[in-house]
Design brief:
Blueprint: E1 4-5, H1 10-13, H2 15-21, H3 28-39, E2 45-49, H4 55-62, E3 66-71, H5 74-83, E4 88-91, E5 104-109, H6 120-133, E6 134-145, E7 161-167, E8 170-181, E9 186-195, E10 202-209, H7 213-222, E11 225-231, E12 256-263
Parallel strand pairs: 1-10, 2-3, 2-5, 3-4, 5-6
Antiparallel strand pairs: 6-12, 7-8, 8-9, 9-10, 11-12
């Protein structure tokens, strides 16, 4: 089988396809986030950084919050404005953004979006931008893969993960292989797409930074954040999944990591 490497991302270039491949009909991610914000007394102004299709931003808007959704993908933003109205949607890069000083009560970063900061400079740029954007005492809520899970475990690496689904009458098949790049501290992902109709397979590559719980705690502290919660579940992508009334866990051993941190009560950094 011959594959063609693509500089584009089939999922982010086609938001409807993304929502078909990763359905969230119960808006679990948005509900979990709202629960975190409410439990820690966050104000109404929320920035959803890496908002994607806008589903979570719209759920937070429906809960009564004033939400700005930010993403680098123009296709995602256009989809969000039409299909998930309510929030304001703007283009911004999570590696470094300036959407105002002290204008948000919370920054939300879900579904491993933070892990697209591959280098220490990019992580520092993201956290410095969050510090600038947040009002004193503002919250950072993030949900991502857990780097510690891959210490000695290979179950997610041993065999490709295959998913098949139908979108617009066409059957798609994605075959995803994960490998650990220990030198770069990255989880590299190779995804091969095939579909009905004899189309040539397309190969796409991406990567997530592997962050470890204590490393993340140190980075947050260095940028003036106090960690309020750091745990592996329950959350919107855990098994079993989070539901209302569940308390945050106390371990960081499973494959997802959830963090809630509060910015120290001082003026935003220059």
């Amino acid at each position: 089988m011959t594959t063609t490497a693509s500089a584009h991302n089939l999922l982010t270039d086609n938001p409807e396809l993304y929502e078909t491949r990763f359905p969230d009909p119960e808006r679990l991610a948005g509900r979990w986030t709202e629960d975190c914000l409410r439990r820690h007394g966050a104000g109404p102004r929320v920035l959803d950084m890496g908002c994607g299709t806008g589903r979570d931003a719209a759920r937070l808007h429906a809960a009564g919050r004033r939400v700005t959704g930010a993403d680098l993908s123009e296709a995602m933003l256009a989809h969000a404005r039409v299909h998930h109205p309510g929030p304001e949607y703007v283009r911004a890069d999570l590696h470094g953004f300036d959407l105002g000083r002290g204008v948000y009560d919370a920054v939300v970063c879900l579904d491993s979006a933070l892990l697209y900061c591959h280098t220490n400079d990019q992580l520092d740029g993201f956290l410095a931008s969050c510090r600038r954007a947040l009002s004193p005492g503002g919250l950072l809520v993030a949900e991502m893969r857990n780097g510690a899970y891959f210490l000695g475990r290979t179950d997610l690496l041993d065999a490709p993960a295959v998913h098949t689904f139908v979108w617009q009458g066409v059957r798609y098949r994605s075959t995803t292989t994960l490998t650990v790049d220990r030198t770069a501290q990255l989880l590299r992902r190779t995804r091969v797409w095939t579909s009905d109709g004899g189309r040539e397979p397309v190969e796409q590559r991406s990567a997530w930074r592997l962050l470890f719980p204590q490393e993340l705690r140190h980075l947050l502290g260095a940028h003036g954040f106090e960690v309020l919660e750091l745990h592996d579940g329950p959350g919107p992508r855990t098994e079993p999944a989070w539901h209302e009334g569940l308390e945050p866990g106390r371990t960081t051993d499973a494959d997802r990591l959830h963090v809630v941190a509060r910015l120290a009560g001082a003026a935003p950094a220059p």
